[in-house]
Structure formats: structure tokens, C-alpha cells
Amino acid sequence: MDRAQLPLNALRAFDAAARHLNFTRAAIELCVSQGAVSHQVAQLERRLGTRLFHRLPRGLALTDEGQSLVPAVADAFDRVAATLDQYADGRFREVLKVGVVGTFATGWLLPRLDAFARTHPGIDLRISTNNNRVDLAGEALDFAIRFGDGAWHGTHADPLLAAPLAPLCTPATAARLKTPADLIPERLLRSYRADEWALWFAAAGLAAPVLRGPMFDSSALMAAAAAAGQGIALAPPAMFARELATETLVQPFALTIDAGRYWLTRLMSRTETDAMAQFRGWLTREIMGGQDQAGSGP
Predict the structure, then answer these.
(1) How many CB atoms lie under 10 A from the CB of residue 249?
(2) N or C end of the chain, less CB within 10 A?
(3) What is the CATH number of domain 166-245?
(4) What mean pLDDT, rounded, does the chain reach?
């Protein structure tokens, strides 16, 4: 069908009527008369050669044909609306969808988002957080920032930031910790990665105790529990710089373990767009700049 011949008014009337299952309410939404909506829908039915609604005494019911048309029409209008939104401030802005593991989102990315928006006004950055389990294809993501070893099937991974783990707790708890062995009777908060405390105690030359503390799927949530005095978290200090600076949390021991790092990942089948390249470059510069500053002290 020629685009110029698409019955757009009729499709809009059908979309509204299908959502409300009532011509009157559809007419109120579209700011037209009830008769105009009914006429447009009837015109579409004649054009398609099939009925889209059953007309009932108190409303409408979709026919099988109408039900099959609903998702196609709704998706088309949603796509048009999303594209128009990209011109909301008078210029085109490229949408960039990034899934981010929650700890990195709050501990590193959030404080820098305003700076990114100022320096990249042409990018409409849309962030969703996760607990490190993400479906790039299913969620239609351009990138995902996640923690691990960089080995995800069908995925290209760029290393971003090392994130060694260390015990974190309140100053009151830290006051009674003189050696790593003092951790053994304490409540040790657990990650879903079950071997982390065992690795830390092994690095300290100790056997790990049986862990009975709560288990968390987010280091950010686990650190919040530690800050509330509910136990000791094993988490990346690099993601909790603000809490360490204000002594909401403290790191009682310098010993750390390497259990992975943060990676910027994308599907190998995904061609990198200009917005993706700009975001990747910005991340790299910000991380390298932070590492240079950390290494420039006395």
C-alpha cells in the first residue's frame, strides 16, 4: 500500500477505540465526535473487507481480525511518537539504551551523568539497572555494563574498571576488628557469588567460617545494609567513595581480592552507532582520568 494512501485518521480512530472499547471515550480522547470515530472505523473495515469490532449494546468487543491488528497499529504509533520525541527540543537526539549493574550505576555513573548530558546534548541516554543478569537482545540494549570476567557468549566486551573487593562496615563495627580473624564471629553479608568470602579469607591465610548472614543480589544493597549496622559487606570500595569519604562505611583491612571487573558489553551482531562510539569514548576518558588522578598523589 502506498504510504500516501494510508488511512491514518481511521487507524488512529481504531487504535483509540480498541484501547477504550467504546466509541464515545475514544472520541473524547481524540477531541472529535462519536460519529466521526464510528465513521472512521467503518471506513477502515470497508477498506480491509472485514469487521474489526462487534458492536454491543454497551460498548465494543474486538473481533479476531481486530485483535490481530491491535499490536501492529499500536507499535507503529509508538514508533512514530518515540521518533518525534527525539526532536522535542528542536533538534534530533539519538537514543542510546544502556543497561547498568546497579552498583556501578549508583557508585560511579550517577555522579557523572550531568557532565555527560552537558557534553553530549545530541544523545538521549536511557539507563536501566539490573543485578548483573541482562538480556541485550531481549531488552533492545545498545550496551550493558556488567561485572565479571568478560566472557559472555556472543558479546564483545571492553574492560572498564577493576573493582577489587574488601570488607566494608560501620566505624563502630570496625573498632572491634583488629585482625582478619576478628571477622569470623561477625555477621558477614553474602553476595549471590558464593565464593567471595572464601577467597578473601584464603588470601588472609584463614579458613572461611560458615556464612549465615543475609544474601543480596546487589553490592549496593549489601553495602546499604552494612552502613545500617546489619553486618559486614564484601564489596568494591571504588564504588563507595562517597560513603568512605563521609565514614558512613569504613574499610577495616587493606587486603583485597580480585573477583572480576566492570565491562562495557554489546552484542557482536550490533553495529556500533555514532552515539555508542561517543559513549564508549567518554567512559574510557572518565575512567582513565580518574585513575590518573588517583595515581598522582604523593
Answers:
(1) 25
(2) C
(3) 3.40.190.10
(4) 90
Mean pLDDT of 136-142: 92
Check if the beta carbon of residue 22 is closer than 8 Å to that of residue 29.
Answer: no
The answer to whether residues 99 and 141 touch, using CB atoms and an 8 Å cutoff, is yes
The per-residue pLDDT for range 145-193, each reduced to its tens digit, is 999 999 999 999 999 999 999 999 999 999 999 999 999 999 999 988 8
The residues that bridge with 126 in the sheet, in sequence order, are 97
Cell of 170: 560501620
Contact call for residues 224 and 214 (beta carbons, < 8 A): no
Q: Measuring CA to CA, how many Å separate 78 from each of 41, 174, 234, 235?
A: 20, 53, 44, 41
pTM, rounded to two decimals: 0.69
Domain boundaries of the chain, sorted by first residue: 3-85, 94-162+261-294, 166-245
Buried b (16+ CB within 10 A) or exposed e, 251-276: bbbebbbebbbbbbbbbeeeeeeebb
CB atoms within 10 A of CB 188: 25
Q: Which residue has the higher pLDDT, 7 or 2?
A: 7
**Looking at the predicted structure, is the pLDDT value of residue 297 above 50?**
no
| 249-292 tens-digit pLDDT | 999 999 999 988 999 999 999 999 999 999 999 999 999 886 65
CB 53 within 8 A of CB 10: no
Secondary structure (DSSP) of 126-180: EEEEESS---TTTTT-SEEEEEESS--TTEEEEEEEE--BEEEB-HHHHTT--SG
Hey, what CATH topology would domain 3-85 get? Arc Repressor Mutant, subunit A (1.10.10)
